[in-house]
Amino acid sequence: MKAVFKTDRGRIRQHNEDSGGSFLNRDGHRLAIVADGMGGHRAGDVASEMTLQNLQKLWEKTEGIQTADEAEEWLKNNITEVNHLLFEHSKNNPECEGMGTTIVAVIITDRFSTVANIGDSRCYILNDSGFQQLTEDHSLVNELVRSGQISREDAEHHPRKNVLLRALGTEESVNMDTKTIMFEEGDILLLCSDGLSNKVSTDEMVTILNNREIVLEERATSLINLANEHGGEDNITLVVIEFDNSNGSG
Predict the structure, then answer these.
(1) Which end of the chain has fewer CB atoms surrounding its CB within 10 Å, N or C?
(2) Angle 8-11-14 from CA coordinates, rounded to 5°
(3) Average pLDDT value for the chain
(4) Which ranges carry the PPM-type phosphatase domain (predicted)?
């Protein structure tokens, strides 16, 4: 298993309010996270960084997850706990009022991967069946698409594209989606903030990720560079995980 994390401020924003990373626990299982913060002055980076740090600490001392049910339970319980921490922090610190963050998190073992998400940061898988988005955006525009009120093409340029229906830390309780998939030799997982998915098409993602002649780090850099070439109006964050046992763990 090889994993690469990269984040970039982009070409327009003065601050990077995204956070992310990839962490091993005592059993050698991996937790990958991308969080895209939002809120008042610099509060978005507080929300995403608190989310990352708390989940990292909890994960690094976790052991004994053997089944998908246990992975889903870990994600639900600990993301719910982090939601409570963020909500309390925003209540007790006026400068952080209204802060929140998206989150997409994946627990990866050598048999399965379990995904949890809140907001519009995404997880994709590239495997023998093609390239598929595993997460559903919790956004106003996606709800309009789902209900048939607008087309996917309309959604790309909708003026309220950034309006989220769910975020971590903005409400006392939060609902998240979870899903477990098989993760096998040769498969690639991509977690990213909307700074990537809004700027790089799925065809472009597939072309870059499928280029096995260059190392994973270079593929990740190419994705970031392309998002910047297409405008780079937002922070860009990604984690790419490749199931490749030929070179051991990454």
Answers:
(1) C
(2) 80
(3) 94
(4) 2-243
Please tell me whether residue 63 adopts helix, strand or coil conformation.
coil
Residue 49 sits at the vertex; the CA angle it makes with 48 and 55, to the nearest 5 degrees, is: 90
| pLDDT less than 50: residues of the chain | 247-250
Interatomic CA distance for residues 19 and 3, integer angstroms: 16
Q: Which two tokens stand for residue 113?
A: 């991967």
HSE-CB of 214 using CA atoms within 13 angstroms:
12
Residues 38, 171: Cα–Cα separation, whole Å: 14
Q: How far apart are CA 221 and CA 208, in angstroms?
A: 10
Q: Could you tell me the CA-to-CA distances from 31 to 96, 146, 193, 239, 246 in Å, in that order?
A: 27, 30, 16, 10, 21
The pLDDT tens digits for 160-200 are 877 899 999 999 999 999 999 999 999 999 999 999 999 99
Q: Which two tokens stand for residue 216?
A: 């994973």
E strand or H helix that includes residue 237: strand 236-242
Identity of the amino acid at 34: V
Rounded to two decimals, what is the model's pTM?
A: 0.94
Fold that domain 2-247 belongs to in CATH? Phosphatase 2c; domain 1 (3.60.40)
CA angle 215/71/182 to nearest 5° reads 50
Domain residue extents for the chain? 2-247
Phi, psi of 169 (to 5 degrees): 100, -10
The first and second tokens of residue 28, run together, are 């050698």
How far apart are the C-alpha atoms of 135 and 121, rounded to whole Å? 8
At 27, list the tokens.
């059993």
Q: How far apart are CA 125 and CA 240, in angstroms?
A: 10
User: For residue 140, which amino acid is it?
Assistant: L
